[in-house]
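Researcher: Next entry in the queue.
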Amino acid sequence: FGDTAILDTGLSRVEQIGVQLLGIVCIGAFCFFATLIVLWIINRMMPLRVTLDEEREGLNISEHRARTDLIDLFMVMDHQKKTGDLSFDVPVEPFTEVGQIAERYNEVLLKVRETMDENEKSRKAIEDAFEKIALEQNRAERLLLNILPASVAEELKSQKKVIAHSSREVTILFADIVGFTTLAESREPQQIIEILNRVFSVFDRLTDTHRLEKIKTIGDAYMVVGGLPNYMPDHAMAVANFGLDILREVEKFRFRNGRKLEIRVGIHTGPVVAGVIGEKKFIYDIWGDSVNVASRLESHSLPGRIHISEQTAAIIGDTFELEERGMVEVKGKGSLLTYFLNGRLEPSTGMAV
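Model: Structure for this entry, 353 residues:
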């Protein structure tokens, strides 16, 4: 560090060395901090490096020596991760390590897309199968409701035990086309079916109108009941109104030769047992002596007349015009007092309408 005699500082050699070392340290510190301050000022005015988020995206290429094709690959992967869109491949740079990575990644994407397509096809197939099952189930339920009353059908679906009910009082009606056997012999089968279909379709509509339950048709006979399967207090009047309405509707039917279509009607009120029979072909039916009486009253009725029992007459006598027929011999029952139902009574005049 020089000759102390020439420097003439009055310091010993050790002291002189210490002073010079201190100067070097001070100059170095000054230069470092001055440079740091200058760079800080420049960075505030013009950033010298990217932000932390940008660095994570790979924008500090010059510092980490990442190539553009690798950054592009990462950017596409990040986009697919965020959007879930795997419908396109990542770019492949041929003959490079990055290109091989991208190629392998595209192979994985292809497999994923194939799996997703298969899953989508399976989902659609299952969805279509469920729709077909639902359609068939609705069709089966509609068919079931054509056979059984709605409440009985629900009971049948919810339990497997025998379905049987008893009712102390319902009203049964039988209607039969007069001379149908002779008529059937003189016409083609298709004509006969068309006639029955037209007549019974009208009866079905009126059954719904009067809240009655159609039990069955036996050849040209039509059987309906009021008060089953759900109780209704005015079952006798509802059946009586139904009988008058079907007589009125039948008068509108004419054969091609001008001949009128006529029916006989029988009505009786009494107790019955009802239930579902059969395992493969369900049928809702009613049994009891009351059913037999109603059937006998129909067979003893006259064309275009409604023949009712004394029990039914006792219930509806104040509302309908009745004509006493007298005692009628009924098979299995002996002589019964019966009536003809002629019409409804007008409340204001007391006349039949």
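Model: DSSP finds twelve helices and eight strands in the chain.
Researcher: Noted, moving on.
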